[in-house]
Queue: 3 jobs
Job 1
Amino acid sequence: MNDVTQLSELFLLGEEEEALKFVRNYLNSHSYEELNEQLVRPAMYRIGELWEQNKVSVAEEHLATAVCEFVLSATEIRAEDNDGRLKAMIFAPQGEEHYIGLKMVAAMFREEGYAVRYMGPNVPLDAALSLADDWQPNVVALSGALAHRLPVLKTYAQSFTKLKHGPTVLIGGRAVTLANYGEYSVKGAVIVRHLGALREWIRTGKGSNDDSTLSTG
Ligand code: B12
């Protein structure tokens, strides 16, 4: 059994302690980014495939997600608090319920020293806009898992880019890796397709040279 299969089985069995031990052991020889991109994401995608094929039940998939969330929270790296940190607000739009990817994004911003407001999934636009107006984040990061979420992501992105303090809006998630997002590009918003590209954006303010990885509207 490879690592991805092994971890997904621990998730499906609800083996919290074993899953945590497995992940901590993996982290002895891998980065947190490798953990997220090469182990946890594929493990959850595998569970999605088994679910689609009716090989696991909704209850097992929920259990697996809960264990996954526990493991991510337990292993997160936080930079020390200091004054004058850049601020990132992170959430998914109304209707979107998937949030494991968002948690990874929030973790990466924390690891990179940002102050983070992580609001989870299914956040109404007005409420998010009013929080952003008060807190004035430098970055607003949005996520969508299903392709039909692209129009609502576009609406959200347009609204945030119009805020007076002008945050950068990042859009990511499975939806943008699947779809032809060209028609959804928004001026001032950046589409980021994976965590490596996000790290690069955070550190340099730019995407990688690979145009298919990241595109600006
Ligand atoms: C767990 C799960 C659920 C849980 C979510 C709980 C939770 N807490 O998140 C629940 C049960 C709620 C759920 C519901 C549904 N789901 Co679901 N779900 C999944 C599953 C198995 C795992 C999701 C996950 O955690 N993935 C792992 C994370 C790490 O991956 P990720 O989200 O892609 O994030 C990565 C990148 O995209 C990126 N990223 C994500 N966001 C952002 C944001 C930024 C700014 C950046 C830079 C990067 C970034 O970072 C991550 C690391 O690379 C997936 C399978 C899959 N392939 O994802 C199906 C899956 C996404 N779901 C699916 C479906 C169909 C549904 C439902 C419609 C089912 C239904 N009939 O009710 C509903 C829709 C709910 C809704 N309105 O949103 C399908 C989608 C198929 C499609 N048409 O696209 C999938 C693919 C399963 C399948 N194979 O059929 N689901």
Note: Confidence is low (pLDDT under 50) at residues 208-217.
Job 2
Amino acid sequence: MVRRPARRARRGRSRAGPRDGWTSTSARKLDPGICGPRRACRAPTSSNGLWPVLRQRGPRPALRSSTPTGIELPGRGTRVRAMRVVRVQVGRAGEIVIDGRAVPTAIVKRPVEGPVAIGRLGLEGDERVLRRRHGEEHHAVYAYPEAHYGWWEERLGRTLAPGIFGENLTVDGPLETEARIGDRIACGTALLQVAQPRIPCRKLRHQLGLRSSLDFLATRRVGYYLRVLREGVVQAGDRFEVVERAEGSPTVDTFVRIATEDYWDVVGLRELIAARDLDPTWREDLGDKLARAEAAEGWLGFRELEVVRREAAGEGAVHLWLACPWGRPLGPHRPGQAVGVLVRPVEGSRPMRRRYAITAREGERIRLTVRVAARRSVEEGVGLVSSYVHALEAGGRLAVSAPRGSWTAEALPRGVRRVTVLSAGMGIAPAVPLVRDLREAGLAVRAVHFRPEPGEPPLWDEARALGFEREGDLDVALRERPPGAVYAAGPRGFVASLGERLEVLGHDGAAFVEEVGPGPVPVPAAPPPPSEPPGCDG
Ligand SMILES: Cc1cc2nc3c(=O)[nH]c(=O)nc-3n(C[C@H](O)[C@H](O)[C@H](O)COP(=O)(O)OP(=O)(O)OC[C@H]3O[C@@H](n4cnc5c(N)ncnc54)[C@H](O)[C@@H]3O)c2cc1C
């Protein structure tokens, strides 16, 4: 340990609310980056990728500190919270038993009183079990916001020991939504730089008693690793302040989201790769992800889209307009194609996948038209997905896979100019955009919706405007052999009897059939979820 003049260090954990160490608005002028309003991360109502859907229950909570950044004091102007080191911790190499096996680790850390030297590879007295992996300059010091302790204690239902996350510095400092990769932070007499987020390992999972380390990651309350730009000395109570903002660099929160959930996000991945002074290991990893995302048709796996508008679609169906909550493009699709959705319709139920046609598009918004398949049977476990999706309101989120399917105009053999499109049930959903597309391409299209029962089907206004006929009897709808190609979409029974009818009529042209009901959902393979990471602590 390094000796230096004793200072009054704060002991124990800080609590919310005003206390010593407030600075005046002049600090805001000097350092607008840290003194601006605290931005809470948006709280999606579903998840972005497959694994969080599997693990997450309910909405992701907003990331917000229990202590305010600024406070209005009558007559004194806005005061700004000082950024401080709350505790300093170091750990000795030892063992913990995980699943019956002894695992070497230095994750168990204990608070240190008095000044501690910060060297290029970390705090003095802080041991690492795998120096090669864990001791490098890009994760020399691990800082964790004190503000998250209360949040975790509430969720875990127990008091957490200081340093439980394996952090070297518990800080009253920038949250993950505020700290940017590359930010420079004055810490005691040292100068540190935000290098990367903490990607948790099984040791942390064990410490917290979580089912999976991914549960920790999904909260995005992960803290961050710092590299040491200038060695120095730190003790509890010292300042921990951003002195140079890495403007344009992603925040730690954004970094975690894109690198571990939104791996489809080509634009976001490029921004991550351009993060200031990024660890080369991350650059390589993100480069691989970017190459896969760029090569993908549409996007990989499931991504979260937000319901931006909900409209009635007739016969109890709804139109849901979906857009990327991060404003990213959706990529092209072909009329007649469908997306996959992944939902956990009832708490505790298994995740389920279904397909829904894109019935319209406005720029970077797509429209799905969903009818509840079997409302009265929800208790029996049928109609669950359509009921869930149908109930989504504006602002709700849905995990959606990229548009897929060959029930499109592109499937037509060259030279075919006449087409018959037949639909039944919700087969009308892909049929409407397909007919519109075929007409725009100048083809002669006859469109018939088969519906024996009275009443109008969903989307009928649009279908009628496109000249759809309506027929209750398939033999009447298809009296003669249809010229050219036939497209058919509808429930299994309809598709089967249509096939028989075409055979009777001796139709020998191309036929494209889409069975619109439960079935496999083609999803471009997503990268595996993050596992034992570069940057795991101890
Ligand atoms: C390519 C494709 C595109 C699709 N597009 C749409 C669409 O745009 N809009 C839409 O609402 N659905 C569409 N579907 C159907 C959708 O994927 C689901 O099958 C449907 O929502 C039922 O799922 P569920 O889990 O609610 O009901 P499930 O429990 O899977 O089914 C409940 C009961 O309803 C029957 N059923 C299933 N689907 C339908 C249906 N569409 N009409 C009548 N009965 C049905 C089932 O056979 C079962 O008996 C499409 C399916 C495919 C394959």
Note: The chain is about 20% helix and 30% strand.
Job 3
Amino acid sequence: MEKTEQMICFLCRCHGEVDSGHQDLGQTEKRIDLEFVRARVMAAYSFVKQVKIFDSLCMDQDFSEMARHIRDCCASRVLICACASKIDEIRLGLKKQDMDAMVEFADVREGCAWIHQGRHGFATEKACDLVKMAIVSLAEQGVSSFPDPGIQPSVLVVGAGPAGLAAAAALARAGIRVHLVEKAEQPGGMLRLLHTVGPGNDTPKAYLASYVEAIEKNPLVTAYLSAKLMSIHGDPGCFTARMIVGQKKIDVKAGAVILAMGARAVLPRDVYGYRELSGVISAMELERNLNKGMAIQGPVAFIQCVGVRDENRPYCSAICCPVTLKNAIQIKTDHPETRVIVFHRDMMCPGVELERYYRRARGLGIVFIRFDAATPPVVLGKESIEKIQCLDTSMGREISYPVKTLVLSTGLAPHPNTNGVFDQITLAGETQKDGAFQDFFSVKPLMNPVQTDVPGVLICGSARWPVLADGAATQGEAAAMKALIFLGDKGLDSQGLSQFRESKFAIARVNADRCSGCGNCVAACPFEACRLEPGNGRYHCRVNPFRCTGCGTCVAVCPNNSIQLPEQTSRAIGAMLLTAFGEQNTGVEENSPDRVKKQKRAARGIEQ
Ligand code: SF4
Ligand code: SF4
Ligand code: SF4
């Protein structure tokens, strides 16, 4: 912190959760005495120009009031002492007030007032320590520099199934240029191959009509059909995709990428007489036969969980149970006399609508037989399927049904990463050597379900995880909104980017003069953000700011202290430690020259 800089500190009462303020409560009820904290801080640090106590810091009027105080005292560094849960909200609120001061937080609610209820004196002392530690840390922090991201105001959407179409339509509605790439001749994805889309029983064409119309009518969407995607290169904010359409090579630029390429149906292999006995077909073949209006010979049986929930694919594919219900109901409704039996391990029908669907199937007389993975149904027949024997685990007895048509309900698997198209925009761990995705993409399912580990790369629909058409379209719209936020944050700085990634810290910075090019950070960085580059006759490390999540791993392995997180430098941590543990023994006042020297020594101790 420069000598001319000022700091301001805001303490939050949280409407009495932290400090009951003027209310006449007993000492044990008071929790933290913020007036006492304020007096301590003001006495200790001359560069802290003001310490303001607010009843709340997370409302709109609080942001404008804080901004007014920050401007009044020309503070370049702001300490917020409040609750842990509102950090991002407060940071964003200040940003909206055009505040670009450096901001640090101290948690005085959850980590202090709440956990030390009934210990008023102790909680107040601890709050003093927390606030003082945050002050010295903020004073030692450097400013993150961040290159101009040069964001392209357009989005590449890979795949024109329900997720991709919904994403493209939403983005175009918001005025963003969209490049929609689809390998098939028509939009619709796998949905296009289905007979009907349940539970509403729309035709795929009717189901997709509004999306298709939206993208056809909007000149901001360029759809590349029958396109072969060759590569996607670049960094978040500026990707370049190369594709071949017909004989033509086409390059397009986009600021964000939405992966909506769906998944592929697993093919039954050497199971249940598939390809050996006539009458045994896959679920996709049943859709095709229904589409052609072919008669389905009864009795009809379905076997669930084929090719999934086993050692190779140990997951539930989520969509095959609802799809079986759809087709079983269709067959039973068209031909009530046909016997329909579903052999299942569990019928997965989450939600009220699918539960109703299941009950409707039962009401129509469709028979559900539960089996165990260890004792799967046995299919018997000579040239054609004749019957199925199975241990019914619900009844605890062997049963046998004559069957003319057996439908194998296979799950979904990730698409192969053909030619390593996605290598540049995913992390290496996500693909296998043979080019197939090891798993569906890695996402942050709880708080940020359509965000991949790479900023600006979103994922939705069955590319993310098997999902029905409605869910895929909803995710497509969610991904579009996330892409809009990413593109819209024109003043994307290090704090903005780290906020987008839900990470507190910003971007690692390299001191090229000190870097020996040892490569430790390159090997250690879990996000492939470090690489060695030549310069001045030697190699030194360069950090890709879009990939860096501020995890700090590189800082720990660098032998020369040449890579640091500006917000958490060794000096800042040293100063915090000295504030927390050094003071009682030394009796040195915070503002004294001795203390400043000690802080410097502590910081050097960490650096050496
Ligand atoms: S959705 Fe049903 S059939 Fe598909 S894997 Fe899950 S339990 Fe098996
Ligand atoms: S802080 Fe983490 S993500 Fe950033 S360069 Fe260092 S190791 Fe990589
Ligand atoms: S670990 Fe440190 S010295 Fe080695 S390449 Fe990385 S930044 Fe340079």
Note: The two ends are 22 Å apart (CA to CA).
